[in-house]
Amino acid sequence: MSHHCLTQTKIGKKYLVALTGLGLSLFVLMHMLGNLLILVSPEAYNKYGHALTSNPGIYLAEVGLVAILFVHLALAMKLTRENWKARPVGYAVVSSGEKATSLTTRSMWAQGILIFVFIIHHLITFKFGPHYEVEYGGVMMRDLHRLVIEVFQNPLYVAWYLVALFALAFHLSHGVKSSIQTLGIHHPRYFNKFKMAGILYSVLVGVGFMSQPLYVFLIYKG
Amino acid sequence: MGGASKSKLNLKLKLWRQKNAKDKGYFMDYDVKGISTEASFLEMLDVVNEELVKKGEEPVEFDHDCREGICGMCSLVINGNPHGPDGATTTCQLHMRRFKDGDSVTVEPFRAGAFPVVRDLVVDRSALDRVIQAGGFVSTATGTAQDANCLPVPKDKADRAFLAAACIGCGACVAACKNASASLFVGAKVAHLALLPQGEAEREKRALAMVHQMDAEGFGGCTNTGACAAACPKEISLEHIAILNREFLKASLLER
Ligand code: SF4
Ligand code: FES
């Protein structure tokens, strides 16, 4: 039998969407935990950022992340188009009751696009935003804390941030458990536990991320 | 079940009419009166067709055969739901007592690029047969059957294989899926044979061939919405899609 390229098949592409999705899920968890340092002190927050960006490994990590995001996005978009094509004539009445398909799963593509737009805007605002400086113990470093405080004074930015984070949370709530299933992991004994874990994960990441703009906007007094 | 509960329904039906695969098709409204609550959904359509024939009109074509929930021939999407509103039920086993007097009922064919409409509510589901032909079988020697006990199958595996084998190939999973994916059907077939010693010899070849044929037929990919399992009249679970995923992954990695 001649060889087939695994990723020529829809299942093969889906494996990669699942693997890269799980990778990105871990990244957002780490990012969220880092953000929580804002609740500790400006110094802890800035020093953490400095430790990350002054490590030469950061470039490798960034290139890796962009590559993972690109594969996730490109294959998911290709699969979505193929899936739309698989039903050229739609139904007049949508399914309902126990046979209905949840809005979360139906709108994964839209959430994905929203999250992508958010990431670009987010990078422009923070990573490539104004470069304030601060000195701790004789070391000059970027005062990202100051920028964050400034940005989240704007209620429009806070609102947009929250909308994007809701989309991220919904994306994770389906994505994590779906990825596990795609990779062939499913057993009646722990299927429901994985499902719950996926939902808890999305709530944890979502609420964790939202705490930053809400804290700055509502509580932080300089 | 008692005679006292017998009653009659009047319904507003909206049925899909389409002359052939090329025709665009349209919905036609029918007011039907005096349908017994004890009739099955297909018997209700029989009554509609009798009236149409009496009036000299073309009856509405729909698929059916056993009418006892075992052959997989009946189909229909009823008010948006393949095989109607109830779980674990084929259209032929759906009864009119499930509806209320005056209900509007829209009936559409199973929709998928891989299931072209033949006429009215009849679609061509032979794409599923071609997926089976690609690998959903076991090769055996002909001649006298060997003694059954020569081939030990553990009870739990036999039970699980039986659950998978309950799939009647109706295609409701495809109709229910927003991607028109046949993953639940293919998962049931691959899992059924992968669990049994008879299926072992062609195990990897089967997973590869069936997945490639499924793609070639134009079915969509699985996005784990679970709509298929909810619509499946035989309650094939999502575990079967996970089994398909890992059988295919293993086979792809081991392919020489
Ligand atoms: S898996 Fe269920 S819904 Fe799909 S073809 Fe088999 S019996 Fe029908
Ligand atoms: S007609 Fe045979 S299953 Fe419905």
Kindly give the count of domains of chain B.
Answer: 2
Which overall shape of chain A is indicated by the principal axes computed on the Cα atoms? globular
Cα gyration radius of chain B (Å): 21 Å
Quaternary state reads heterodimer
| Shape verdict of chain B | elongated
- What class do helices, strands and sheet pairing of chain B give? alpha+beta
- Placed side by side, the strands forming the largest sheet of chain B appear as 2-1-5-3-4
What would you note in describing this structure?
The complex is a heterodimer of chains A (222) and B (256). With 222 residues, chain A is mainly α. Chain A has one domain: 3 helical TM bundles of succinate and fumarate reductases (Up-down Bundle). In chain A, 70% of the residues lie in helices and 4% in strands. Chain A is built from eight helices and two strands; from the N terminus they run H-H-H-H-H-E-E-H-H-H. The model of chain A has no long low-confidence stretch (mean pLDDT 96). Chain B is an alpha+beta fold. Chain B has a five-stranded mixed sheet with strand order 2-1-5-3-4. Chain B is elongated, with a radius of gyration of 21 Å. Chain B is built from nine helices and seven strands. Chain B folds into two domains: 8-119, Ubiquitin-like (UB roll); 126-255, Alpha-helical ferredoxin (Fumarate Reductase Iron-sulfur Protein, Chain B, domain 2), CATH 1.10.1060. In chain B, a hairpin with a 2-residue loop joins strand 3 (77-78) and strand 4 (81-82). Chain B starts with 7 loop residues before the first strand and ends with a helix. Chain B has helices spanning 41-54, 126-135, 155-165, 172-176, 183-194, 197-200, 203-216, 227-231, 239-254, and strands spanning 8-17, 26-36, 77-78, 81-82, 104-108, 117-119, 122-123. At the A-B interface, helix 1, helix 3 and helix 7 of A face strand 4, helix 7, helix 8 and helix 9 of B. The structure holds iron/sulfur cluster (SF4) and FE2/S2 (inorganic) cluster. FE2/S2 (inorganic) cluster (FES) binds next to loops of chain B.
